[in-house]
Design goal:
alpha/beta; CBS-domain; 13 helices; globular; ABC-type quaternary amine transporter; EC 7.6.2.9; nucleotide-binding
Length: 368
């Protein structure tokens, strides 16, 4: 657990970066600090490991005042991940990950063995350990940064906008990887971002800061979206917060419909007035044949109409609505956990389910 007790940071020019912060970060969960530029979120994070010293107030980590700890020793016991990874360019990936264990007195063999284990844990192949950071993609470098932060098995992990420099597709994959790791490791994670979508996607608790370093609201994502504390929070989480809140509404029993399907490599049959879903050998959706399509011979992927996003059954309703709205047919394709076709759903079905769920939606917890 991390406690901020009346913590203030005032710089030499008189700027107040953090103003009387009282906040308790619960152990074993992801807490996200979010807000506009200059709101004090990164300063608050960096005071935990004393990379920035508070002007007044107290910060406790597991009941111990961080000011009583030797700063280098304190930092070796707290994992730290920054934007663009901050890897040592002259060291191999394996030696980058082994850095903190070596500083903590581990033997070189033990530290490298631990580093190899962590590369596997974060989803990187073992052969990348022999490469240098410049030989990796941005997403791979960030995974190495996470592995390095976890190398000495710290109870606390600080992450300062770690995914903001990568493209949206890679960023979503890294978020998924972080959530998977947290399910396994149960670390106390403090994560800084300026992106409210990222905050509500990965955070179990979210602290919204306003300019001047003032904590505006601290709540679970569902509560934050449903009941913003004031106009500032409402404006920051955005006018589409109702759509974001669907991430916390369980799909329950979505009544699935069925459509005509055809397998790749099989004849399409006579043209119909309906959309036909095309599946591969594993029954994975590949696209659509529009109404009254005429196909000579067997169906191939060439010429199919892309199908929009897919929705995995049993996950929150935001994905179901997106699948229905992005589909050219107006039918969101639902797949099982193996990606196989399970049925279709319309936007109207999703909206009806939302209406039925409305009394309990604001109390829903985040589900990953």
């Amino acid at each position: 657990m991390i406690e901020f007790r009346a913590v203030t940071k005032r710089f030499d020019d008189g700027t107040v970066a953090v103003n009387q912060l009282d906040l308790t970060v619960e152990a074993g969960i992801i807490t996200v600090f979010v807000g506009p530029s200059g709101c004090g979120k990164t300063t608050s994070l960096r005071m935990i490991n004393r990379m920035v010293e508070p002007t007044s107030g107290t910060i406790l980590v597991d009941g111990q005042d961080v000011r009583a700890a030797d700063p280098p020793r304190l930092r070796r016991g707290i994992g730290y991940v920054i934007q663009q990874a901050g890897l040592f360019p002259h060291r191999t990936v394996l030696d980058n990950v082994a850095t903190v264990p070596l500083l903590s007195g581990w033997s070189r063999g033990r530290a490298r063995h631990r580093a190899a284990e962590l590369l596997e844990l974060v989803g990187l192949p073992a052969e990348l350990g022999r490469r240098y950071p410049a030989q990796l993609s941005g997403g791979q470098q960030q995974r190495v940064g996470v592995a390095r932060a976890l190398a000495a098995d710290p109870p606390v992990l600080l992450m300062d906008e770690p995914f903001s420099a990568v493209d949206p597709v890679v960023r979503e994959g890294l978020q998924d990887e972080l959530l998977r790791l947290q399910d396994e490791l149960d670390k106390t994670i403090v994560f800084v971002t300026h992106d409210i979508d990222e905050a509500v996607r990965i955070g179990e608790k979210v602290a919204v800061f306003r300019e001047g370093g003032v904590l505006a609201q601290y709540a679970a994502p569902a509560e934050l979206l449903a009941r913003p504390a004031d106009d500032f929070v409402a404006g920051f989480v955005g006018r589409d917060r109702g759509y974001r809140s669907l991430s916390f509404v369980d799909s329950g029993e979505v009544a699935l419909d069925q459509v005509s399907t055809v397998a790749i490599g099989q004849p399409a049959g006579a043209p119909t007035a309906e959309w036909v879903l095309v599946l591969d050998e594993q029954r994975h959706p590949r696209g659509w044949l529009p109404p009254r399509s005429t196909v000579e011979g067997a169906v191939t992927e060439a010429g199919l109409t892309p199908g929009g996003s897919l929705y995995q059954a049993g996950t929150p309703l935001r994905g179901a609505l997106d699948a229905a709205l992005s589909s050219p047919s107006g039918l969101g394709v639902v797949v099982d956990e193996r990606g196989g076709y399970a049925g279709v759903v319309t936007a109207r079905q999703v909206l009806d389910l939302i209406e039925r769920a409305r009394p309990t939606a604001t109390g829903a917890e985040r589900g990953h």
